[in-house]
């Protein structure tokens, strides 16, 4: 993920953006970052307190999505935080 996108996410979180906001499928920002393999963003979200155990409407955690998409470096980060 380009550094400017991580900085943008940090600015939003520092300004009070809801870290645990969910979409219509109960996906959190951490679900999206893990699903896309965005390691730097995952690291930032975890540092800010994102919960690894939250499940989507389909019962998937961010770790599950990382595994499904073979983003093993992201999965490693998520499993350390679990």
From TrEMBL:
Cited Pfam families: Ank_2
Record keywords, A-Z: ANK repeat, Repeat
Keyword hit for Repeat: yes
Record keyword Repeat present: yes
Ranges: ANK repeats: 25-57
Cross-referenced SMART domains: ANK (SM00248)
Record protein name field: Ankyrin repeat
